[in-house]
């Protein structure tokens, strides 16, 4: 059975790239364009991994990571943050919120898949 990955990303091109890349590597990818739907989608889809953009309108990926990690049912799911924030302080803050991995944009496809495979 294919591993399931929830991809939370508001940029259509990035969302398509991440989902296509995951599917090409045998994963089932579920796209979420609006961060406000991410927690409900995680409950319904029960992913093995969540890939989370940090900079999104309405709710940030940082806030969503905190919400996911505070939830008894969802906290076990590893979260990979994908962000244009590239400073050491940003990475530390995002990891402290509960992200299990951190990949900065623009992404290297090889680095992206290495991070996904390391979490699964």
TrEMBL record:
Domain Response regulatory as annotated: residue spans: 4-120
Organism, scientific name: Sphingomonas pseudosanguinis
Name of the protein: Two-component system cell cycle response regulator DivK
Domain of life: Bacteria
Biological process terms in GO annotation: phosphorelay signal transduction system
Keyword entries, A-Z: Phosphoprotein
Pfam families according to UniProt: Response_reg
4-aspartylphosphate carried by residues: 53
């Amino acid at each position: 059975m294919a591993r399931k990955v929830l991809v939370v990303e508001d940029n259509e091109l990035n969302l398509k790239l991440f989902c296509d890349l995951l599917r090409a590597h045998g994963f089932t990818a579920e796209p979420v364009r609006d961060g406000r739907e991410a927690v409900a989608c995680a409950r319904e889809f029960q992913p093995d991994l969540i890939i989370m953009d940090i900079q999104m309108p309405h709710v940030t990926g940082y806030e969503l990571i905190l919400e996911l990690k505070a939830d008894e049912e969802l906290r076990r799911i590893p979260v990979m943050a994908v962000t244009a924030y590239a400073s050491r302080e940003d990475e530390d803050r995002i990891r402290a919120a509960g992200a299990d991995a951190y990949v900065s944009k623009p992404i290297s496809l090889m680095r992206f898949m290495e991070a996904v495979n390391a979490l699964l």
